Amino acid sequence: MEEQIQNLRNQAIARIMALASTEEVEEAKLEYLGRSGKINEVTRQIPSLEPERRSVVGQLINDAREAIEQALIAQITEIKNKTDKNKWFDPTIPGNKPQIGHLHLVTQAIEEISSIFREIGFSRARYPEVEWDWYAFESLNMPHDHPARDEWETFFLDTPENPKLGKMVLTPHTSNGQVREMERVTNPPAGGPPIRMINIAKCYRRQSDVSHVPMFHQFEGLVVDRGISIVHLKGTLDYFARRFFGSERKTRLRPYHFQFTEPSFEVDISCGVCLGRGCKLCKSGWLELGGAGMVHPNVLKAGNIDSTKYSGFAFGWGVERTHMMKSGLKMEDIRTLYSSDLRYLRQF
Ligand code: DAH
């Protein structure tokens, strides 16, 4: 019996090592290890042996089974390696070109906007997206229960309140950077103004429909120095409008109200089609861009800046909106911008 098992094992291994295809290996596997295969055939004879020999023979059979399994696996690998090596390889075939991507169109707009402001001496700043109520509202002259806050449909975080800074919010506008920037230049060792900041960042509001996304971008300008007036604001906006939209475009300031600026304006740009005369597209000749104004003394005070010595202007516009006004892009659903749909994104 023991000899029979040894022979079975040796013959099986020798045969398996000579096999040339995976199909043949599969057949051999059935023949030896299958339910009615040769190994089971000898296993079935165990009960007829004298009891003291059974465990020795059982052990031998197990070893043989394992050795045959190993041989089968080794042979499959061997066959696969051989066929791969024999495959004909033509090194002159052109390779698969990796797909080349490009920047998202909002990123392209952000780069363009920051480079235009860089030309006139603005530096790009970045402030937290998860922000204290103090910087987002309170320091901007909007006390706790002020109704103006309702316009910013704010996401509040479920975190403990800070006694001075209040709750945590997702920045609902980039104006949170104003007092942060004032603190940066007034905290020693910095020596105070001038400030020429452009803060471009993600903003979050509880709104999602065809013309709103819960996450969007704004760019916020802030200039603080001695003797800054509306003339500087107008000049800066005109420079941006000409560079971004085209040399024939103009801006106009329309009185408005914001808590953090006095006076406050909405900025309009002359329509690119009729250049201000009025047409079907724009009706009045002007298109609305965003908010601006002269920094309110209370905001300067919150940023430790002496409003008797310094004055400033600020503006804050939506990146997506500004970009769409330039490109004439009409989107049925603005959420498409952030849907990661390559069919859409590849067009830009
Ligand atoms: N933060 C305002 C908003 O989100 C926009 C704005 C208006 C920013 C006037 C300014 C400003 O800096 O002066 O609607």
Could you provide a short overview of the structure?
The protein is of the alpha+beta class and 348 residues long. It has helices at residues 2-18, 22-33, 38-43, 51-86, 105-119, 133-136, 176-186, 230-245, 297-302, 319-327, 342-345; strands at 123-125, 130-132, 168-170, 195-204, 215-225, 251-258, 261-270, 286-295, 311-318.
Description:
It is a single chain. The strands form 2 sheets. Strands 1-4-5-9-8-7-6 form a 7-stranded mixed beta sheet. The model has no long low-confidence stretch (mean pLDDT 92). With 348 residues, the chain is α+β, with helices and mostly antiparallel strands. It has 2 domains: 2-84, no CATH class; 105-345, BirA Bifunctional Protein, domain 2 (2-Layer Sandwich). It has helices at 2-18, 22-33, 38-43, 51-86, 105-119, 133-136, 176-186, 230-245, 297-302, 319-327, 342-345; strands at 123-125, 130-132, 168-170, 195-204, 215-225, 251-258, 261-270, 286-295, 311-318. Bound molecules: 3,4-dihydroxyphenylalanine (DAH). 3,4-dihydroxyphenylalanine (DAH) is lined by residues 173, 175, 220, 258, 261, 291-293, 314-316.
